[in-house]
C-alpha cells in the first residue's frame, strides 16, 4: 500500500515543525510548499537527513510548484504572516486573505480530494475564506485553534491542580481571538468538573478566572516573549492531532473551527465547536448544552468573527 501524502502549504516555523512531526510519526510522505525559493527545499533536505538517525522511510520534499501537492491526502495550511508584539491576529487579515486566495486556488486545481486543515490567522475568517476560494466540501475544510487553546487551558489547569495533564480535559470554543470561550463546566480532572473542584476547596474561583484570562491571552503571551513571531510547537502538535484523526479514522471529539449550519444558532460561519473528526472529515458537529455565561460569551465571540467576514468581503468582492 502506498504511503499517505501530507502537503504542508507554508514552510515557516509551523510548517517546518509539522514536517518534522509528520516524518517522525510516520504519517506519510511530506511535501513542503512555500513561495520563497529554497526554503522548502532546504528544510526538506535537512529533515530528510534526520531519517537515518530516526529510522523513518518517509520522503520529505520541498517545492514552489503547486503541481507537487497532487494526490495529497491531508493538506495543512500555515501560509501567510504571523503577528509581532503590539499586533492583534485581526491585523493580519488583509495580507493573509490574499494568501488564502492563492492557496485555495492551488488546492482546488491540484488536490481537491484532500482533507484541509487551516492554521493561518485570523483563523476563523481565514478558514472560511480558504473554503470559499477552494470550493471544497465544507466537511473537508476545518480550522485548527480549539485543540491548541484547549491544550493551553489544560496545561494551566494541570499546573493549578498539580495533576497529570493526562487526567485533564478542557474545551475552548468560539473564535480564536481574545473573545475565545474556555468552558469551565466541561473542564474536568478525571471527570470531576472544575466547578466541583472549586467547591471541594482544590482551587478558588479567582484562580480559575485568572487561568481563563491567561488562556485567552495565551498566544499573545508567547508573541510578547518571542518578539519575532508566534507560537509554533504546540500549534504544529495540534494540527498533527487533527491530521491523525482523519488519516486513522479515529473519530476523535476535538474542538475545531467548523462550518456551522444552524448549530448553536450560528449559520454559515466557521467557529470553534466540538466536532468528530474521522475518515469522512468533519463527521459531526457536537452540540453541547452551555450555561448562560458560556452562551453569552460565545455570542460575543461569534459577533467578532462575523465582523471579520464583513472585512473579508469588503476586501475581496468575490466573497460576497
Ligand atoms: N490557528 C492557530 O492556532 C495558530 C497558531 C499559531 C500560528 N498561527 C498562524 O499561522 C500562520 C503561520 O505561522 P508561522 O509561525 O509558521 O509563520 P512563518 O512566518 O514562520 O511562516 C509562514 C510561511 O508562509 C509562507 N508564505 C507566505 N505567503 C505564502 C503563499 N502565498 N503561499 C505559500 N506560502 C506562503 C512564508 O514564506 C513563510 O515561510 C500565521 O498566520 C500565524 O498567525 C495560527
Ligand atoms: O497568537 C498568535 O498570533 C498565534 C496563534 O494564534 C496562537 O494562539 O499562538
From TrEMBL:
UniProt name for this protein: Malate dehydrogenase
Reaction catalysed by this enzyme: (S)-malate + NAD(+) = oxaloacetate + NADH + H(+)
Function: Catalyzes the reversible oxidation of malate to oxaloacetate.
Molecular function GO terms recorded: L-lactate dehydrogenase (NAD+) activity; L-malate dehydrogenase (NAD+) activity
The UniProt record lists the keyword Ribosomal protein: no
Active site: 176 (proton acceptor)
GO biological process: lactate metabolic process; tricarboxylic acid cycle
Domain spans labelled Lactate/malate dehydrogenase N-terminal: 5-143
UniProt keywords, alphabetically: NAD, Oxidoreductase, Tricarboxylic acid cycle
Ligand binding (substrate): 83, 89, 121, 152
Keyword Oxidoreductase on entry: yes
Domain Lactate/malate dehydrogenase C-terminal: residue ranges: 148-307
PANTHER family reported in the protein's UniProt record: L-2-HYDROXYCARBOXYLATE DEHYDROGENASE (NAD(P)(+)), L-LACTATE DEHYDROGENASE
EC number: 1.1.1.37
Family: Belongs to the LDH/MDH superfamily. MDH type 3 family.
Amino acids binding NAD(+): 10-15, 34, 96, 119-121
Pfam family, one: Ldh_1_N
Amino acid at each position: 500500500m502506498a504511503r499517505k501524502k501530507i502537503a504542508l502549504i507554508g514552510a515557516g516555523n509551523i510548517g517546518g515543525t509539522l514536517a518534522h512531526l509528520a516524518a517522525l510519526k510516520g504519517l506519510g510522505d511530506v511535501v513542503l510548499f512555500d513561495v520563497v525559493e529554497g526554503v522548502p527545499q532546504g528544510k526538506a533536505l535537512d529533515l530528510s537527513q534526520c531519517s537515518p538517525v530516526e529510522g523513518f522511510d518517509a520522503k520529505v520534499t520541498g517545492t514552489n510548484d503547486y503541481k507537487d501537492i497532487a494526490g495529497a491526502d491531508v493538506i495543512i495550511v500555515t501560509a501567510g504572516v504571523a503577528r509581532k508584539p503590539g499586533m492583534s491576529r485581526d491585523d493580519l487579515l488583509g495580507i493573509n486573505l490574499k494568501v488564502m486566495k492563492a492557496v485555495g486556488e492551488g488546492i482546488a486545481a491540484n488536490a481537491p480530494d484532500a482533507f484541509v486543515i487551516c492554521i493561518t490567522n485570523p483563523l476563523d475568517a481565514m478558514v472560511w475564506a480558504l473554503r470559499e476560494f477552494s470550493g471544497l466540501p465544507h466537511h473537508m475544510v476545518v480550522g485548527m485553534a480549539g485543540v491548541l487553546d484547549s491544550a493551553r487551558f489544560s496545561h494551566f489547569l494541570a499546573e493549578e491542580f498539580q495533576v497529570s495533564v493526562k487526567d485533564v480535559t478542557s474545551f475552548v470554543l468560539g473564535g480564536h481571538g481574545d473573545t475565545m470561550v474556555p468552558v469551565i463546566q466541561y473542564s474536568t480532572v478525571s471527570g470531576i468538573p472544575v466547578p466541583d473542584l472549586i467547591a471541594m476547596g482544590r482551587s478558588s474561583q479567582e484562580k480559575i478566572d485568572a487561568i481563563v484570562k491567561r488562556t485567552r491571552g495565551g498566544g499573545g503571551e508567547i508573541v510578547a516573549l518571542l518578539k519575532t513571531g508566534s507560537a509554533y510547537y504546540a500549534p504544529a502538535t495540534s494540527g498533527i492531532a487533527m491530521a491523525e484523526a482523519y488519516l486513522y479514522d479515529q473519530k476523535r471529539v476535538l474542538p475545531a473551527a467548523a462550518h456551522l449550519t444552524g448549530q448553536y444558532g450560528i449559520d454559515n460561519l466557521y467557529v470553534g465547536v466540538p466536532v468528530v473528526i474521522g475518515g469522512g472529515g468533519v463527521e459531526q458537529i457536537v452540540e453541547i448544552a452551555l450555561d448562560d455565561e458560556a452562551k453569552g460569551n460565545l455570542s460575543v465571540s461569534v459577533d467578532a468573527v462575523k465582523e471579520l467576514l464583513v472585512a473579508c468581503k469588503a476586501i475581496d468582492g468575490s466573497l460576497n
